[in-house]
Write a structure and sequence with these properties.
Chain lengths: 501, 334
């Protein structure tokens, strides 16, 4: 572990989006021959750091140094040229192009006529896949690859560029344990060849297994950079969270009431199979599992956004028609979707319009909407949820992520639902607002609302849920009560037998 | 590792859209010839190819633009302004060689195309809106310039007019130019980095930015090419028809887009080929001449073209849904 000059150094960088400071004064070095973990809660600013290193964002202040020289990346091409390869959290493939082309894009092998040498390109892809130990046809299009396979193609892409700095933003989220082991073996060999690795993961066992050094971030600020060997996992979590877990997850004890939702043997070919569970009034039920396990898909089918092939969904014992969100809403169901920008809000519309949208028909008089009614209804809810906003007539897009999420919640709570489905309720929200959203969910449940929460954040699942339903590869892997739930029991169920390591 | 079975090339070819167009073309020619044997005479074939040439040149540029998930609606107007500029120039300077006419046409079109590209890229306005605007602007400029007059065949030098009928080794110049343009663009799009980058940009614009592809340069290049080829088409138009006024090429943009879509280029970018678009142009031209030979009312032609476009899009959709379903089943662990 040579502590020579850093291959890449992040020096006192700051980046704001609108009024929200995503990263404030963060510094850390990446040494050659060393794997460096970057940890922090969702929304701590890790992905912003990654995007700055990748040349997607420019730091507002502060500098990036490659070797001894300050660099200013005008775009991703510059970062690539500086020897930085990035594996993003979300795969960024070209669905119409072949797997081999996806890997080679930007540095395809050329023949003497400067044409693309397809044979060499396919051979390279085969070689990289062999190194990763996966079987993928380099000539097939990237369209239709499973998320895990897409992630593997991303990894092969990064390897092919022979970068000196490899940045991996949660590369293991969709991989099985075997694939993770192979990936780590490859990463270790790259590290031993002198590359610098920046590794982001929510799984602490991966960090302690792979990394030598760790940088901890909280709310966009730098907390510490230390050797992994000097820290326990508890130390890391404490510094990451910066407060007691109980304050973050203010769960009120509630005696469950009647059965609100019952799902029986719900199946959709190729997506999920034989899903059965019940949710009672006053209960918070969490759907946990790895990315791609089918959690959101199940709830979208329950709500009627997606179709299902067989099975029954009942609300208070009454069977609900499939594929009909309007009927689901009429029956008292509300869905707060995962991607609030795409599915939850109309960004250019005012806050009040967004809040009253699902109820527009009820608020209308003679088929027309009058501003006054809308405004009053919206003001009531904005106040109840303590939304920080300028004017109700401002566009929703001007709010911070946390406040946007509150507007989505307000929008659906205003319909007075009896069953609330929230998909990743606190993704991309700062810790303070996160606690507020949690408090809100808890008090709603205490008032007799049934809540189904889809979440990837284990602490949130453990802290908020009365019952945890763990999905694995489209099936219910386990149902765990609040008392029995631990990080290990949930992860074990989510990952199956392979997690034994 | 065990070698992964790759699909044999022959099987891939059978699945391509281009083969479907060829089949449709063969059936159409066969049926028309049975009804009227003169349809396959030398003169008839020659007419069809000459009529295809101009459309195919423009379809090439359009295909490249559509592959990047954009569209260029201004090509008809660019043809008009280029045809007018070149016809005026040739009538005033009778001695200028053909190559100058071609270069001027290309240059006029290139400037118009570059302006489209700049507005799309740096104005951050959708191409549909930008090129709809420039469609009217370029046409307006031509009307202003021409002021109601026209250039007649008797004002144009003979070598310019003869170009449309002259051959090289038995192949008319127009057809040769179309073949070179379609073939060259097909090769670049298939085998060169810049071509694959254009496909990548259309397939996922966001991923293209992250991959460090020079998106701005490539996009400007695509629009410049489309404009330049529309300019070239203007020169060929002037040479072939001899009479040019300010309305030359009005409405051509729709034929061009139709040829591209029928030729199997996906309107959402990322897939399709330039030679497919060329075949689309040939198919549309042959349909219209077949209708004349079969003595079917010409009004049907538009309805048939429309039906073909919808058929082409339905075929794309059907294939996409089928592929998605089969991939979903194959990869599912459930």
């Amino acid at each position: 572990m040579a502590e020579a000059t850093a291959l890449l150094e992040v020096h006192d960088v700051t980046k704001s989006f609108g009024a929200v400071a995503a990263v404030q004064g963060v510094s850390f070095p990446l040494y050659g021959g060393e794997a460096h973990a970057l940890v922090g809660e969702n929304g701590a600013g890790k992905s912003t750091i990654v995007k700055m290193l990748a040349g997607v964002h420019r730091p507002d202040t502060g500098t990036l140094r490659v070797g001894d020289a300050d660099v200013d990346f005008a775009g991703p091409a510059d970062a690539k040229a500086a020897g930085i390869a990035v594996i993003y959290q979300e795969p960024t493939l070209f669905p119409d192009l072949s797997v081999a082309e996806n890997i080679a894009m930007g540095n395809q092998p050329l023949t003497r006529l400067r044409q693309i040498d397809r044979k060499a390109m396919h051979a390279t892809a085969d070689r990289l896949f062999a190194r990763l130990g996966v079987h993928l046809d380099p000539t097939r299009p990237a369209r239709g690859l499973s998320i895990a396979d897409q992630q593997l193609v991303e990894i092969a892409k990064a390897l092919s560029s022979e970068a000196r700095v490899l940045i991996m933003d949660e590369p293991t989220a969709a991989l099985s344990a075997v694939e993770v082991d192979r990936l780590f073996a490859v990463v270790r060999s790259l590290r031993d060849e002198g590359a610098a690795i920046l590794f982001i993961s929510h799984r602490f066992e991966e960090i302690t297994e792979l990394c030598e050094r760790v940088t901890i971030m909280r709310d966009g600020k730098h907390v510490a950079t230390e050797m992994v060997a000097d820290l326990t996992v508890d130390d890391m979590i404490r510094r990451m969270v910066g407060r007691d877990l109980s304050a973050l997850f203010p769960k009120q004890e509630v005696t469950p009431g009647e059965v609100m939702l019952s799902v029986e043997n719900l199946s959709r070919e190729g997506v999920f199979r034989d899903i059965s569970f019940e949710v009672r009034a006053g209960e918070i039920v969490a759907l946990a599992g790895l990315v791609g396990a089918g959690r959101s898909e199940v709830m979208q089918a329950v709500f009627g956004v997606d179709p299902y092939d067989s099975g029954v969904v009942k609300i208070r014992g009454k069977r609900l028609k499939s594929g009909n969100p309007r009927a689901a809403m009429a029956a008292g169901m509300a869905l707060v979707p995962e991607d609030r920008r795409q599915q939850g809000l109309i960004m250019d519309l005012s806050i009040e319009r967004n809040i009253t949208l699902p109820r527009a028909r009820k608020l209308a008089r003679l088929g027309l909407l009058f501003g006054g009614v809308e405004k009053r209804a919206a003001a009531t809810w904005a106040e109840k949820l303590q939304t920080k906003l300028g004017k109700l007539s401002d566009a929703v897009g001007t709010l911070s992520g946390g406040n946007q999420q509150k507007v989505v919640l307000a929008k659906w709570l205003a319909t007075a639902p009896q069953l609330l489905i929230v998909d990743e309720p606190t993704r991309g929200i700062d810790v303070g607002t996160k606690a507020e959203v949690h408090r809100l969910m808890s008090s709603l449940a205490a008032d007799g609302l049934a809540v189904v929460m889809v979440s990837s954040e284990l602490p949130e699942v453990l802290g908020m849920a009365d019952r945890i339903i763990v999905l694995r590869e489209g099936r219910v892997a386990a149902q765990i009560s609040r008392a029995e739930a631990t990080e290990e029991s949930v992860m074990y169920a989510a990952m199956g037998q392979e997690a034994a390591a | 590792m065990t070698p992964v079975a790759t699909t044999p090339p022959m099987k891939n070819l059978l699945k391509t859209r281009e083969l479907g167009i060829l089949l449709a073309l063969a059936l159409l020619v066969l049926y028309t010839t049975i009804n009227n044997s003169r349809f396959l005479s030398g003169q008839s074939i020659r007419d069809n190819l000459l009529n295809t040439a101009i459309l195919a040149v423009m379809a090439t540029g359009q295909a490249v633009v559509v592959i990047t998930r954009n569209i260029d609606l201004s090509v008809g107007s660019v043809l008009g302004i280029s045809a007018w500029a070149v016809a005026t120039m040739m009538s005033e300077h009778q001695g200028l060689p053909m190559i100058v006419a071609i270069l001027v046409g290309l240059a006029v079109g290139a400037v118009a195309g570059l302006l489209n590209g700049v507005l799309v890229r740096y104005g951050k306005v959708p191409a549909l809106v930008v090129t709809l605007g420039t469609l009217y602007i370029y046409r307006g400029i031509t009307y202003q310039w021409a002021g109601g007059s026209q250039v007649n065949a008797d004002k144009l030098p003979a070598h310019f007019l003869n170009f449309a009928n002259d051959n090289l080794l038995g192949i008319p110049w127009l057809v040769l130019i179309a073949l070179i343009v379609v073939g060259g663009a097909t090769l670049v799009m298939r085998n060169y980095r810049v071509g694959r980058e254009l496909y990548a940009m259309g397939s996922s614009p966001q991923a293209a930015e992250l991959a460090g592809i020079k998106v701005a340069r490539n996009l400007l290049g695509a629009f410049l090419l489309s404009g330049a080829l529309a300019g070239l088409a203007g020169v060929l138009f002037a040479a072939r028809f001899g009479t040019v006024d300010a309305s030359a090429g009005t409405g051509y943009e729709l034929n061009v887009v139709a040829a591209v879509v029928v030729g199997g280029v996906a309107v959402f970018g990322g897939s399709g080929t330039v030679w497919g678009a060329g075949l689309g142009a040939l198919l549309l031209t042959v349909i219209s001449s077949a209708l004349a030979v079969l003595d079917i009312n010409q009004f049907w032609q538009q309805a048939i073209v429309g039906a073909l476009i919808i058929l082409a899009i339905c075929a794309d959709r059907l294939v996409a849904v089928r592929i998605a379903r089969s991939l979903r089943k194959r990869d599912a662990h459930v």
